[in-house]
Amino acid sequence: MLIKVLGPGCAKCKEVEKVINVVVQESGSSAKVEKVTDFKEMMALGVMSTPAVIIDGTIMCTGRIPSKLEVMEWIH
Fold this sequence. Notes:
Elements: E1 2-6, H1 11-27, E2 32-36, H2 39-44, E3 52-55, E4 58-62, H3 68-75
Parallel strand pairs: 1-2
Antiparallel strand pairs: 1-3, 3-4
């Protein structure tokens, strides 16, 4: 599983990355977490609002910080 966290590095983007990493670690998932900061790549992925989370090519959320429970549901 590949989880992409998209955002330029603002506080909300960093919080999303933190939530994702905590859930991946706590769940024992072998998911790989990748940070995407390049705006051209974000647009190519179909994201116009950050922070955003993409799991295996599917946009899971944009423009907000997902809850730990939400992320847990996504990766299971």
